[in-house]
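Can anyone check this?
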Amino acid sequence: MSDPLYDELLELALEAARRAGTLLREGRPADLGVAATKTSPIDVVTEMDIASEKLITGFLAEHRPDDGFLGEEGASVAGTSGVRWVIDPVDGTVNYLYGLPSWAVSIAAEKDGETVAGVVAAPMRGETYRAVLGGGAYRDGERLHHRPAPPLSQALVATGFGYLAERRAGQAEVVRTLLPRVRDIRRGGSAAIDLCDVACGRLDAYYERGLNPWDLAAGELIAREAGALTGGRPGEAASGELTLAASPALFEQLQPLLDELGAWHD
C-alpha cells in the first residue's frame, strides 16, 4: 500500500515542477543573460533560475508551511515537520542559457533525511519522471525499468564535468582512460536527466563527481525505483564525492573501475 504522505508530497512536487517548467519554457527572455556566477565564471545563474526557485518554494510553502527547503539558488529553511524539499530550479542552466533542450526542473522530498518522492520535469522533451520510495518509477504513465546490463565494452556511459579547471582536468583524465573500455561516452549537461535516462534505458550508466544534493536527489530515487543500483565509492551512498547509477551487473563492474581510476577525487 502506498503511503499517503509520500503520495501527497509527490503530487505537490509534480504540480510545482509543472508550473516551473511552464514558466521556464514560455517565459524565457530572448536576450537571457547571466545574472550571477558562483564557483567560477562558467558556473552561472540566470534570472530564470531565481524566478523558478521562487515559484517552487512559494507554491510548496503555501501548501506545507512547516516543511524545510534546500535550493540551489539559496533557499534554506530548517522546517519543523521532518520533511525537507530539495530543489534544483533549472538543472542544466548552461544548456538553458544557450537554448539547448536538455534541462529540467528537479524536486525531491525527504522525510527525516531519506528521499521519499522525486520529480524531474523535462519540458523540452515533453516528459516528466517521478517516483516514490517503494512505489516504482514512471515516465508520465509508463513504468520505468533500467536497460539489461551489456558487457562493459558495449556500455553507453554518461558523465559530467565540474566548473573548476583543476577538477575538469582530472575528470578528463578519467574519461581518457575509460573511453576505450566502453561503447562510448555521453555528456548531456543535466545530471537529473542523465539519472532518469538510466532509469528509462536510454543510458547504461551514469557517473559524476561534484554533484550537490539538489542535482541528484530526485533523479537518484527515480533510477533506484527503476531497478538500477546507485552509489558512490565502494560501500558508500551516492554523494558529491561520486555518484554512479547503472543496471546492477554493470554497476558491479564500473564501481571498482571508477574507484581505481580516481573518479572520486580532484
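Reply from J.R.: I decoded it. The mean pLDDT is 96.
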